[in-house]
Amino acid sequence: MNVRLERDPRNPLICPRGDDWEMMATFNCAALLWEGEIHVLYRAVGDYVEYASSLGYARFDLSLQLIERMDFPVFTPEPSLWEMSIEDPRLVVVDNTIYMTYVTTPRPTPPWGVRRKLGLPKPNMCIPRTAVAQVTQLGQGAIPQFERLGICTPYHADERDVVLFPARVQGRYAVLHRPRNWVGPGYPVDRPSIWFAFMDTPTGPMEAHRVVLSPQYVWEAKKVGMGPPPLWTQAGWLVIYHGVDKHGVYRAGAALLDPDTPWKVIARLPHPILEPEAPYEREGDVPNVVFPEGAVIVDERLYVFYGAADKVCCLASTPLDRLIKDLLAHPVREG
Predict the structure, then answer these.
(1) In this structure, is residue 81 part of a structural domain?
(2) pTM score, two decimals?
(3) Domain total in the chain
(4) What is the pLDDT along the chain (335 residues), one digit of tens a residue?
(5) For the chain, N or C: smaller number of CB within 10 Å?
(6) Is 1 a domain residue?
(7) What is the CATH number of the domain that holds 15?
(8) Which residues constitute the domain of residue 84?
(9) Does a structural domain hold residue 297?
């Protein structure tokens, strides 16, 4: 059947605007269905010199019509915590509490595409880490409020893709994460892969690490990483992830994890469900990128929010049952 996501005709949904904090790029958006509305947090960049990101906020009704987009950032870096940039949020509800995972780095830098255009040298990099915040106020037209809880990733792990499961697994918090530098000698993988871990609190420490998804197909040959938090379905945990090929092209894929032991893959599509085709995906600060980060299910339809070319926020969707049927036609058999 080879299900593909259908692009929303209104794409891109969120574009850069103004002359301040979000004038250069607005991309990589989290999404959460909460109290009858879809809430979106997105990464916003105001200049290419510092390239420090903050988070903007918009909310949509269930027909995906924009209700409000705030004209100021709702979450900004905290330099006293060595947060010089806030990037790539994900939103999830666990035990009726809203959590946001987000990437923080002490030394932000423009992506390679921007550096090349501007003639900027490659900087000395500090590895990014992922932190957790509790969202203490969301909805009813209020300004979102956050309480920082701390770093959740293991020490020395280069982490940009950490998502919490929206329910406890075997009574504990659980995450999927992608430590980019856990490869080679001493590790069971030779390319960046998606791992499962348990935690006793939303900030860890992570324990009992297991590899879940490793690069397998040509379109994801270089690395794979998480997209939105897993979604519960009757068939298992639905995982939307990104894969990168040897040419640096980002695509989106799908897999199903076992409902009780979600470090086991029960189905996985060999083909991407979304790849750069539209002009706003092929041209931007980093060309040929679709990067899923938010997903909601409304009236049995899956809506995936994604960043395109590190420039804009977009939306694509498909009937949930079609995607599940396609996945179940591609079971993964152990051994």
Answers:
(1) yes
(2) 0.95
(3) 1
(4) 789 999 999 999 999 999 999 999 999 999 999 999 999 999 999 999 889 999 999 999 999 999 999 999 999 999 888 898 999 999 999 999 999 999 998 776 777 777 767 666 666 566 889 999 999 999 888 899 999 999 999 988 999 999 999 999 999 999 999 999 999 999 999 999 999 999 999 999 999 999 999 999 999 999 999 999 999 999 999 999 999 999 999 999 999 999 999 999 999 999 999 999 999 999 999 999 999 999 999 999 999 999 999 999 999 999 999 999 999 999 998 64
(5) C
(6) no
(7) 2.115.10.20
(8) 6-328
(9) yes
Residue with tokens 């990128």: 289
Residue 335 lies in a domain: no
